[in-house]
Amino acid sequence: MKYLGFSTPGAGQAKTAQPYHKPPGAYLHVAGSSLSKGTSAVISAWEKHPEWPPLTIVANNPLVERPLPANIELRKNLSSKDMEKLWRRTSVAIIPSEVEGYGQVLGEAMLAGAVIITTDAPPMNELVTARRGYLVPWSEERPWRLGTRYKVTADALESCLLKVLEEPRDTVEAKAREAYLWALDNHQAFAQRLSMFIKSAAPQKTPLANRENADQHG
Predict the structure, then answer these.
(1) pTM over 0.85
(2) Which residues are paired to 148 by β-bridges?
(3) Where are the strands (E) in the chain, listed by range?
(4) E strands within 13-146?
(5) Which of 88, 20, 52 is nearest to 164 (CA)?
(6) Average pLDDT of span 55-63
(7) What distance in Å separates the CA atoms of residue 206 and residue 6, rounded to the nearest whole number?
């Protein structure tokens, strides 16, 4: 068994120079059809703070079928191009996932140059460390299939968001820069391991001269 790792689609084509220099205040929560991205906690935290910046939620699940505060915009069933546009302008991605496989949405956020707020539990805190994002402590864990599901409360998320809102811009951008560069390095290491594995697993061709000698002595 060999460790190959994981990467995010499009990481090899990431060419944007310094994507972490973004206007502040563009907040995004991406859940899609998943019920395990901490969506309820995100909405509850925003409900308590009408003065907070506008938040865009991309989701198509029962958790968003509720009255939303005026500073939340709900968007559904976006195309890949629409998502790319959203990521390009997003400065903070709020993704307090309860469970992840690899954490593709976290990888997308890092490559987009967004600062990430996520759950301080694996595998989320394996991708997003305190050097390259903000971690929210979890309050409850429970078995989930072959792994564990970690729940973040609205109060814990609120505390983290208040800290982020008060941080100097240079501090936030530094974390975004660390996350972006880590995502690029991670992809390069993954691609190298995958290439080496494919080469080692490929059938070895016998040189033509050796085959001819074998035939003559057979």
Answers:
(1) no
(2) 143
(3) 27-32, 55-59, 72-75, 92-95, 115-119, 134-136, 140-144, 147-151
(4) 27-32, 55-59, 72-75, 92-95, 115-119, 134-136, 140-144
(5) 52
(6) 96
(7) 33
| Range 22-33 average pLDDT | 89
Contact criterion met (CB below 8 Å) for 103 and 82: no
User: Which position has the token pair 């074998």?
Assistant: 214
Residue 49 is classified by DSSP as -
The shares of helix, strand and coil residues in the chain, as percent rounded to the nearest 5, are: 45, 15, 40
Report which DSSP code applies to 102: S
Q: Per-residue pLDDT for 17 more than 50?
A: no
Helix and strand element counts for the chain (H, E): 7, 8
Q: CB-based contacts of 112: which residues, under 8 Å, 6+ apart?
A: 19, 87, 88, 90, 93
Q: Which two tokens stand for residue 184?
A: 């690029």
Can you give the pLDDT at residue 64?
95
In sequence order, the 6+-apart residues with CB closer than 8 A to the CB of 83 are 30, 58
| pLDDT value, residue 43 | 97
Q: What angle do CA 48, 154, 121 make, to 5 degrees?
A: 150
Closest CA to 191 of 13, 10, 5, 15: 5
Residues 6+ apart with CB under 8 A from 193: 2, 3, 4, 5
